[in-house]
Amino acid sequence: MRHASLLYTLAAVLLLPNTAFAAAGHSHGGEAAADACTGPETVASLNCALAPTGAFDEQGRLWLAWAFGGHVYVHRSDDRGETFTPPVPVNRIPERVAADGENRPKIAVGPEGTVYVSWVKRLAKPYTGDVRFARSTNGGRTFSEPLTVNDHRDMTSHRFESFAVNKRGEIFIAWLDKRDLVAAERDGEQYNGAALYYAVSRDGGESFGANRKIADHTCECCRTAMALDGDGLPVVVWRHIYGANIRDHGLVRFEDSKTPAEPVRLSHDQWQIDACPHHGPDISIDAGVWHTVWFNNAPQRHGLFYARSTDRGERFSTPLPVGNYEAAASHPAVLGIGERVWLAWKEFDGERTQLLVQRSYDGGANWSEPDVLATTAGRSDHPQLLGHQDEAFVSWQTAWEGFHLLPVGAPK
User: Fold this and answer.
1) pTM (predicted TM-score)
2) Taking phi first (over 0 means left), then psi (-120 to 50 degrees means alpha), and beta for anything else, what does residue 10 get?
3) Which pLDDT score, from 0 to 100, does residue 409 have?
4) What architecture is the 7-409 domain classified under in CATH?
């Protein structure tokens, strides 16, 4: 297996000379940030953050988790990104934290205000890691000692986790795991890809139950994504290996908090490739509609696609092409709030990366024309869509301009 990103994917994040950033929103950073974050005396700050990931709490406060210098840091903004509290280290002892677009720290705030954080601790061998988890029960002032969620401790890949917390306080976490590949190799057998595993915490993140397998033969290095359905149960999407290295996408819902249903195939683009694209899907669920978005690069069907389901994943709509394939449309995100849905992604024209947004006001049945929300000529992170009540935002980190929280829509 070649652990290499496709040239198409890399084109969207090339480091190029800086130009002005044009956007309606808040930013933290500057042209000097990229150079100022590499010295031995550099202090952890959002300007130097790696892979910041956000979530709103029930009070509408923005929480960010990001990596720097062997630590995951968390801090909060009470004014929609204008200012932030001082960052607090989550892990007391430094470790090698995975922090890139596909494999990054995650954060969520539970119904009682508990702050939950997950990340991957990179191990000594390439492409290996453990899934880590910690929580704060005092408003983000301090965090518990991190625990390792995967109960298989061989030095192999337990990575690309996603998690969600429901209103009952149950925490579901899923990740890509190569323990079955390790076992197959010991027995002299073939095993393609990785597997999708999950674990559940029913004590607020103090501990997790036994690891359970959902599916064999997943793609190894694409992010997973998780959303909760109307019953507070997880729905997980990931890139799967079908047949002889067809890298389409799978989906699984849970019948109850202990029982995943049989996985189903989400995309049918027939992209056959013996490599991992580093380009995972996204999902959002609201008002009984499941919204999904993904990237594939098959000869006949390629680019970004959106599809929705109104019957709990039994059937999905005909995939809708999104963005401009010739401009390397990549790394899509989706968010649904009631009847309003947003898509966000990046495009690259050889000089600039553009952040684009497309809107639907009827649950994803019809869509507006795309709008360019922001541009940069430097490296940039993948966009993330965040929602609170009836408002939606894109969070975006760029190498030159720093972090931005950009409003993309209130009620029509």
Assistant:
1) 0.92
2) alpha
3) 78
4) 6 Propeller (2.120)
